[in-house]
Amino acid sequence: MKLHQTKSKRKRGVVLTPTGLQRLQEAILAWEILENKGDRLTLEELSRQINISAKTLSRLWSLSASIDQKTLKLCFSAFNLEINEEDYTLLNQENETEISGFLSESSSIQVENHWSYPNGAVPLDSPFYVERPPIEELVYQQVTQTGCVIRIRAPRQMGKTSLVLRVCAFAKTQKYHTVHIKCSQIDSQCFTDLNKLLRCLCWQIAKQLGININLDELWDEEVGCKLSCSLYLQNYILKQSNSPIVLVLSDVDRFFEYPHIAGDFFALLRSWCEEARQNHNWHKLRLVVVYSTEHYISPDINHSPFNIGLPIRLHEFTQQQVEDLARRYGLQWTDGKESAKLRSVVGGHPALIQLALYYLSSGTMTLGELIQEAITNGGIYRHHLQQHWVKLQANPNLVRVYTKLVAANQSVVIDPIDAYKLESLGLIDFEGDRIVPRCELYRAYFSKHFSTMV
């Protein structure tokens, strides 16, 4: 039969091209804006959305490992995309390891010059993590200290999660246990009641440590939820551990939206910090608190965890750091020239810098084209900007405040609560007493969009 005569002896897979990767990433970003309130999907969430494994997704993003054609079509159809011929190329699976020399059918650019699309935290094995001395050395040294508290503060997409990944990796080299709780992932209903919240917290700690949770038996309603929580940690979790436990609490700013429980929760954290320094039973606890802004914080200084421990503030990349990162992407830049042009538009914003270098290294556009498109219509940053736009529109008062800010040529007085919200989004910066848009890209884009609302 013809079917048997034409059957290939080699199993053929497909590799995503840079064009296909760009189309798929843009479709995912559009879906996140429309369907996910602008929040980015993690690799695991994306895996569930498409119904393929995270390992397969990693192969797809690499642009160097093949997957079968049906899986590729599934990835595209999940985000309402029709797959085109220029989105992929056929590859003999036995030649997969030789992909670094392969030339895409739709481009003369070598695949080996393309890197994974920058999305979220910088992986531990990535060559594109930019150290900001002496921060890494400080946190590594501090996490080994009995009863340490580390406070990492920076707006969104400034590198907090990337640093936390490295803190946890270092802790594991010291044979410590690590627990990372992302407060943004806790159900809203848990924030309605402190008892629910603390039980949820204890459940996650035990689960991540692989300890039998046993909450109902150990939780004593008679003594109150705060004491029950503390006793659970001291007499059950810490007592079972032979090594220190690094407890990372990310996105703790979320508590600021729930003032009826924020005060009690932060006071409890403060008490753990003090116990860890004074009480032998708590010596194994290392606490890392991660947040975007503290301008909305006004708790009693004697009951706050935000004025103790090692404060770490992540700032934007310097010009030297941008040029170093450009070299890692294989770009041959003149010292002080191209980096200055890029920073004049996006400042040293880590996420925006990474995205620009990714596209420039692919050869799909020049720096001049990137800057021109970014200023006129958002260009490669349009989805990043649309995410901010969606979040701003959800709060009409913030729209009014930011409208005044982007149009002002001098200092504007802003309510502290509005400043907290805008800084946590990463939309503003502080120059002395002045509050200004974080970068020229934001000023240009939002000035244009605000003008259409008049």
CATH class of the largest domain: Alpha Beta
Strand content: 5-15%
Low-pLDDT residue spans? 1-11, 93-114
The strand order across the widest sheet is: 4-5-6-3-7
Quaternary state of the chains: single chain
CATH topology of the largest domain, by name, is: Rossmann fold
State the secondary-structure class: alpha/beta
N-to-C order of helices and strands: HEHHHHEHEHEHHHEHEEHHHHHHHEEH
Distance between the termini: 70 Å
Mean pLDDT: 85
**CATH architecture heading of the largest domain:** 3-Layer(aba) Sandwich
* Outline type: globular
Largest sheet: 5 strands, parallel
Rg estimate, integer Å: 24 Å
* Helix share bin: 40-55%
Secondary structure: number of strands: 9
Provide a count of the helices.
19
InterPro entries: Cro/C1-type_HTH, P-loop_NTPase
Organism: Anabaena subtropica FACHB-260
Domain HTH cro/C1-type: 41-86
Pfam families: AAA_35
Key features of this structure:
47% helix; two-stranded antiparallel sheet; 19 helices; P-loop_NTPase; 9 strands; Cro/C1-type_HTH; 434 Repressor (Amino-terminal Domain); disordered N terminus; 454 residues
